[in-house]
Design brief:
Largest sheet: 9 strands, mixed
Distance between the termini: 41 Å
Number of domains: 2
Strand content: 25-35%
CATH superfamily of the largest domain: Vaccinia Virus protein VP39
Shape: globular
Number of helices: 15
Structural class: alpha/beta
Radius of gyration: 24 Å
């Protein structure tokens, strides 16, 4: 098969949206054909025709913030075959036997393609199963307890039959298998166990409503690098700063994939520089400002630290690139139509330890946040080039006296300043699933929430384009 598995991050909707944005570009043109809450099946227009397509996959993995791994698909069997081979309750043993025989044949047909040299080799592999939904009973009771041991045993047996000296598989903790509470191996395990080498592999079985994709991992994210940048930089504020992955995803929503080193990006609420640091890592020409002089200085120190760590040249005249500016006066300090994109998380309000009352939040929005966002879009229109984008975070606040969150009408504010909303997910590009949990309620999704359990102020991601 010519398709690929993209293992998505925990916020699968945001990961899907980012991936689709990249696939719209000329550089990585392709389409999402299928998805679950854990993976997307992708077909590229031209990628496989390139001799060193794995190198291009590695570049793509590097660019993406919401993708954990990329695997090439070698085969597929439909959901009926999987559930006939491994039903929740066995009623017909002959049917189970026939379906399992079919799966064994699929393994036999593909292992020689995955491992180019088997004879007289010591082979190590790890099996990762990505279900349609992790909290599904079928995953806990059947896939973990029965399908996984079946795969380990039969893959090892087939490899030995084909002449391998050894065929050892990664053993998950028995307590996790018994409980059914099992995570597939993480990207750092792929790196730790050297599973990208020729005689070592991670074999992925990715399940959607349609069936099971069988593939081998070719690239994996390096979370240790992102964590190091985030945690070891001289100045940080974990209470309020966005995550490295979200910073990268927001940068990708600008839809800039060619000549990034020439593209000027602005973060007008630079804080301690999370977006600036990862924009630098992602090859952008980054600028920043903040009303607080101390934060601007922290950002500059963080950038100098990163450039020293990466052994890349220091930014000349860094103080001209990162300035102390009140957002009201932004367009007086930078040339008009100077920037190719703006990415930022403005002030989202006070750090609530308890859910506020709706009247308190209404006052916050009317007196502080709505006027602030109005200024942001007014200034952004002056500073952005024609057809350039702004990717921005807006708050969604949980209330003590209402079951619904309180949100601002960001689209209304943006439209008033001649920006049009860009859909993050469209049903024309990504087909809806039958499972309600995996469905998009609207044909076009113009915002996606990024939140953790218990958060009072949640982030909503929006993208707008200058008209």
């Amino acid at each position: 098969m010519d398709d690929f598995i993209f293992v998505l991050g925990s916020n699968w909707k945001l990961s899907l949206a980012e991936l689709d944005m990249v696939l719209k570009s000329n550089v990585y043109a392709g389409k999402i054909n299928d998805y679950s809450s854990n993976i997307a099946s992708v077909k590229f227009n031209k990628l496989l025709k390139q001799e060193y397509y794995v190198d291009h996959l590695e570049n793509l993995q590097y660019y993406l913030g919401g993708t954990q791994k990329v695997a090439r698909i070698f085969d597929f069997f439909n959901i009926f075959t999987l559930k006939s081979a491994f039903p929740l309750n066995i009623d017909n043993f002959n049917e189970v036997k026939r379906a399992r025989k079919k799966i064994k044949q699929i393994l036999k047909n593909n292992l020689e393609k995955i491992f180019r040299q088997i004879e007289d080799r010591d082979i190590f592999f790890a099996v990762s199963i990505y279900p349609n939904l992790f909290d599904d009973k079928y995953y806990r009771e059947v896939l973990v307890k029965h399908f996984l041991p079946f795969l380990n045993k039969n893959i090892s047996k087939i490899l030995k039959e084909k002449g391998a000296n050894k065929a050892i598989y990664f053993k998950y903790p028995e307590k996790n298998i018994t409980s059914g509470n099992l995570n597939p191996i993480f990207p750092h395990h792929v790196i730790k166990y050297e599973l990208l080498k020729e005689n070592r592999a991670e074999l992925i079985f990715a399940i959607t409503e349609e069936g099971c994709y069988f593939g081998r991992t070719f690239t994996a994210d390096d979370p240790n690098f992102k964590r190091k940048v985030d945690e070891e930089r001289p100045h940080k504020d974990f209470k309020s700063s966005i995550s490295p992955k979200l910073a990268i995803m927001m940068l990708n929503f600008l839809n800039i994939f060619d000549n990034r080193h020439q593209k000027r990006i602005l973060d007008p609420f630079v804080g301690n520089g999370t977006i600036a640091l990862f924009a630098l890592i992602e090859d952008f020409n980054i600028y920043g400002s903040d009303v607080e002089k101390e934060k601007v200085e922290h950002t500059k120190k963080n950038i100098r630290w990163l450039q020293k760590e990466l052994e890349i040249p220091q930014i000349p005249k860094i103080s001209e690139r990162f300035r102390t500016i009140n957002i009201k006066h932004l367009s007086n300090q930078f040339e008009h139509e100077f920037f190719d994109g703006i990415v930022s998380e403005p002030d989202l309000g006070p750090f609530y330890t308890e859910e506020p009352y709706s009247i308190e939040v209404i006052e916050l929005f009317e007196t502080k946040l709505e006027p602030l966002y109005d200024i942001i879009f007014r200034e952004a229109y002056k500073l952005l080039k024609h057809d350039s984008r702004i990717c921005i975070v807006a708050p969604s606040i949980s209330l003590v006296d209402d079951t619904s969150d309180k949100r601002m009408d960001i689209q209304k504010i943006a439209t008033r300043h001649n920006f049009r909303p860009i859909p993050l997910i469209s049903s024309k590009r990504i087909t809806n699933k039958s499972n309600e949990i995996l469905q998009f309620r609207k044909q076009k999704l113009y915002s996606i929430m990024d939140t953790k359990p218990g958060q009072i102020i949640k982030r909503k991601i929006f993208v707008f384009q200058k008209s």
